[in-house]
Amino acid sequence: MAHGKPFTLYRRNRIYYCRFKLPDGSWSTARSTGETARGRAEAWAINYLQQGKIVVRENITLSEFSKDFFAYSGQWAIDRRVAGIRNTQRQCLEKTRILTNKILPALGKMRLIQIDKSVIKSFRNDLFQNGLAGSTINHILSCLKVILEHAEEKNLIQSMPRIERAAARTKHRGILTVEEVRRLFSIEWGDVRSYVMNLAAACTGLRRGELVALTMQEIHGNYITVSHSWDERLRILNPTTKTGRARTVIIPGKLQEEIQRLINLNPWGKPDSFVFFSTMADKPVEGSFITDSLYRALQKIGISEQDRQERNITFHSWRHWFNSLLINAKIPLQKIQSLTGHLTAEMTQHYYHADELSDVAQVIQDSLFATTAHKSGKVIN
Questions:
Q1: Which of 44, 103, 228, 288 could form a disulfide with 213 if both were Cys (CB 3.0 to 4.6 A apart)?
Q2: 230 in helix, strand or coil?
Q3: Angle between helices 192-204 and 358-368 (to 10 degrees)
């Protein structure tokens, strides 16, 4: 080797092999250049160095490297929390599920250095051929990207391969008309908790997990404080909302009455008891039960299951209905975002007190309760 070169060559069975000098002064394992002429072998070595970092271990597979990668107690999750990036157990479990079920079956046995742009593109296209939506494919690719970025940091790949995302065609979320909503809340519901939770979603735009997590101590007359969410997969109370921000949400008079009626029925009766209670003191009602009740109520007003699916109406549609209602009523956008927890990083958060939200309460009151007479039902155990 010529003095000063960051590599050395030697020949074995006519083929030149190359070892690269590492940052700590040691030498890498030998790599075959595939060349029988020294000049071409040197050119191969120089080209290798120009492509990126020197790989310290070439034989490690994606499966080996990604073992427990997304564990909540693992390095990736800890790094995020140290950096102040919100990271929940559910997010870690979801990424682990994607890794286990989607990424490793296709790429797990491959060595990290083999996973290049063409491999990733082929993997993406296979996911599409298997009928996955663009948004789902991009979630999977995002998980793979994080793993490969960490592999690059540890010098296990030369450089981060380019990942081309899939086109995400988000299905439009359908919403009910004001007339349909009025009819929906004027019919007999099978369970009072289902009725009140759906009514609360329509009046506040709260997420289902936020409503399920509500406790009696968070009800303050004409407003509620939203500071937690219920993780239905883990069946635990998350310490924050989805966005990590607590907020105040105004509730109109009719909803106040319905919530108080539900509180009066609560068998547990403690300040930290769930408003939407179940037969267990430390668990709220199942969110899926509430959603199924909504779908049955929709059928009662003439919206069949096929119609509902075609219109893409779900429990989450209440958030869109609430947003649309307030936007059409000319409520300031910042106030709407404050209520729904949709504040962006670029927008300064303004904390609204209940007396600043009377215009919102009036819009809801006029839209929902002007002519609505209801039969909410009873508690079904």
A1: 228
A2: strand
A3: 130
Kindly give, in sequence order, each residue whose CB lies less than 8 Å from that of residue 84, ignoring residues fewer than 6 positions away: none
How many C-beta atoms lie closer than 10 Å to residue 239's C-beta? Answer: 10
CATH 1.10.443.10 positions along the chain are: 178-368
Q: How many CA atoms lie within 13 A of 173 on its CB side?
A: 11
The pLDDT score that the predictor gives to residue 51 is 75
- Cα atoms in the Cβ-side hemisphere of radius 13 Å centred on 184: 23
3-state secondary structure of 259: helix
**CB within 8 A of 113, min separation 6: which ones?**
55, 58, 156, 157, 158
At the topology level, CATH places domain 178-368 in hpI Integrase; Chain A (1.10.443)
Name the residue with higher pLDDT: 290 or 244: 290
Rg value, the chain, Cα: 28
pTM to 2 decimal places: 0.70
